[in-house]
Design brief:
Order of helices and strands: EEEEEEEHHHH
Strand order of the largest sheet: 4-3-2-1-5
Distance between the termini: 47 Å
Oligomer: single chain
């Protein structure tokens, strides 16, 4: 079953889209509470399918990185204590997953958030990242057309 997994700026954790209301989205927290709440248009809501990480060549979709992390960790939660480890340990562990990541533009906080999201997804039984997180109809960023800036 395909799910829309969301991140909401300013709120910890990940959320699953449950329904769409007139002026909001109904989301369910992917934690032990499974609390449902509205996400309004003023909240910065981002689908994990739209997120990518910087590399030296081109950006790599988050689902590809999560799949590589799953393969390295054999489907279990992250073996690294990413909350307390040093920056060097964190970057070395991440380099095993994505060797050519851009070391200037990818910050330690980005890597920690990735590991945190991975643990949340694994704890909720979501491990088939390529299928579960692929963009749904109307959710694909490649389908959106950039409008040329009009001259004034």
């Amino acid at each position: 079953m395909q799910k829309t997994i969301l991140s909401i700026a300013g709120k910890p954790g990940l959320y699953q889209l449950v329904s769409r209301g007139k002026n909001n989205l109904i989301v369910e927290a992917l934690d032990e509470t499974h609390k449902r709440m509205p996400a309004f248009a003023t909240d910065r809501v981002t689908s994990l399918a739209d997120i990518a990480m910087y590399t030296d060549a081109e950006d790599v979709p988050l689902m590809t990185i999560l799949a590589a992390l799953r393969d390295k960790e054999e489907g279990k939660v992250c073996s690294l204590n990413f909350k307390k480890c040093s920056s060097k340990e964190l970057r070395d562990h991440f380099a095993d997953i994505l060797p050519d990541f851009d070391r200037e533009r990818v910050h330690d906080s980005d890597i920690r958030k990735l590991f945190s999201w991975y643990n949340i997804l694994v704890n909720n039984g979501i491990t088939d990242f390529e299928e579960e997180m692929k963009p749904t109809d109307g959710d694909n960023i490649d389908d959106r057309q950039e409008k040329p800036a009009e001259e004034e």
